[in-house]
């Protein structure tokens, strides 16, 4: 499963917005979004004799353009000390997350919501504003890249994303999204931030089930999450399995 994920999702990465591009060599695959989108090294095939040179090349390229860079390091990436090499080159490690995957056919896709809560599909900028508002409140910090990213996805390739907001009356209480990767077996689940006062009522679980149902309808075999410590136990109970950990190293 991990080899399939590496091959299809990481090495076979697609641009996440119409303005982004993928640069692919035999050593790295990077997502280049420029100054307004995500810049990241998403796959690498390095050895002890090549790692420092490639790291320096990537750091120099993005520094020259004045763009941020995330090196998305997975625990099984080589060489084994790649994280230390990234730190030596000026990268800073963020909190690790757990890559979790579930077979869509094995998930309970029944959407069970507390009374008075519904899930709306977002199709316009007003809905995106609700998503951003509740996401920033749920995670406790500003997410400046989220609104332009979602607007670009909605305008450029709406068939490859699903944007959702859970509403209690007129109040957004949670938000989540799913990125569909054409030509692969995987759909990626992202977000899932719920307001503190609404946690523990099954809304996160319902949003997972809603997206898994859509993934199954579109023929995807697996759903994938980069899980935090908070969401990992819920996902495990739903049937997700941990494949590895991933740590963002930011420049």
Keywords:
251 residues, alpha+beta, 12-stranded mixed β-sheet, 7 helices, 12 strands, 32% helix
Overview of this structure, please?
The protein has 251 residues and is of the alpha+beta class. Helix content is 32%, strand content 30%. The chain has helices spanning 2-11, 51-65, 82-88, 125-139, 146-156, 203-217, 232-238; strands at 21-24, 28-32, 40-44, 70-74, 92-93, 97-103, 117-121, 161-168, 171-180, 186-194, 222-227, 241-250. Strands 1, 2, 3, 4, 5, 6, 7, 8, 9, 10, 11 and 12 form a 12-stranded mixed sheet that branches. A hairpin with a 7-residue loop joins strand 2 and strand 3 (40-44). The radius of gyration is 18 Å and the shape is globular. The model has no long low-confidence stretch (mean pLDDT 94).
